[in-house]
């Protein structure tokens, strides 16, 4: 068995007739990004602070992912997302995953309910087309963040529901939403927030 198949065997629960995991992309195009699964820790119990508290660590020119779901308004600073890539959250009663791939500068927000079942996403440690590959902790299926689709495992070929979001400078977001909740640096992990582990990557493209 090739190294990639051996590694993927730990993150699958359906095998096709060839003995390979069920997949919709070439398995040899899914490569290691360096860290192991969850080596980049998702934020699964996010905490939030007020605008006044966020002003202590955010500059006006910092970018945030902004969401308004059922009147629940939240901001997710890229300076935090770059260290975690996934935030599993409940916003306005909607279970969502806020995601950021610092290698290709893409943000996506997804509904975490799949066929009536709620899942939690983590980082797989793998890349597909230099993009974040997530996995869900229920089925261990692999998901392409850019495609918003399962690529290996039980959910291969299943598309995630995308949630509309905004990308804004902190100055603009807080002016528009002075009562916004802001993702706290109290993440449960010790990281030098404000520094960029990839260099000058704190910007986004929107698919």
Q: What this model shows, in words?
A:
With 207 residues, the chain is mainly beta. It has four helices and 16 strands. The strands form four sheets. The chain has a five-stranded antiparallel β-sheet, with no helix packed on it. It has a five-stranded mixed β-sheet with strand order 2-15-4-3-14. Strands 5-6-7-16 form a four-stranded mixed β-sheet. A hairpin with a 2-residue loop joins strand 8 (113-114) and strand 9. The longest helix has 7 residues, at 78-84. Mean pLDDT is 90; it is low at 1-7.
- Briefly note the structural class of the backbone: mainly beta
Major sheet: order of its strands? 1-10-11-12-13
| Count of DSSP H/I helices | 4
Parts with pLDDT < 50 across at least 5 consecutive residues = 1-7
Major sheet: 5 strands, antiparallel
Question: How helix-rich are the residues, as a percent range?
Answer: 10-25%
Count all strands and give the number: 16
Quaternary structure? single chain
Q: What gyration radius follows from the Cα positions, in whole Å?
A: 17 Å
Order of helices and strands: HEEHEEHEEEEEEEEEEHEE
Mean pLDDT: 90
Distance between the termini: 35 Å
Brief write-up:
This protein is 12% helix and 35% strand. The protein has 207 residues and is mainly beta.
Observed structural traits:
mainly beta; 12% helix; 4 helices; 207 residues; five-stranded antiparallel beta sheet; five-stranded mixed beta sheet
């Amino acid at each position: 068995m090739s190294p990639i198949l051996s590694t993927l065997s730990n993150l699958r629960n359906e095998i096709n007739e060839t003995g390979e995991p069920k997949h919709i992309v070439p398995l040899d195009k899914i490569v290691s990004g360096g860290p192991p699964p969850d080596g980049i820790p998702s934020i699964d119990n996010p905490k939030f602070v007020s605008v006044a508290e966020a002003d202590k660590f955010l500059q006006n020119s910092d970018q945030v992912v902004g969401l308004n779901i059922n009147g629940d308004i939240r901001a997710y600073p890229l300076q935090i997302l770059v260290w975690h890539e996934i935030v599993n959250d409940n916003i306005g009663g909607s279970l969502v995953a806020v995601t950021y791939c610092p290698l290709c500068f893409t943000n996506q927000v997804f509904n975490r309910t799949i066929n009536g079942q709620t899942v939690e996403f983590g980082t797989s440690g793998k890349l597909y087309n230099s993009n974040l590959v997530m996995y869900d902790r229920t089925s261990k299926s692999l998901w392409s963040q850019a495609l918003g689709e399962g690529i290996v495992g039980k959910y291969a070929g299943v598309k995630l529901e995308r949630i509309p979001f905004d990308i804004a400078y902190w100055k603009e977001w807080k002016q528009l939403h002075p009562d916004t909740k802001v993702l706290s640096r109290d993440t449960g992990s010790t990281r030098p927030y404000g520094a960029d582990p990839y260099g000058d990557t704190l910007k986004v493209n929107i698919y």
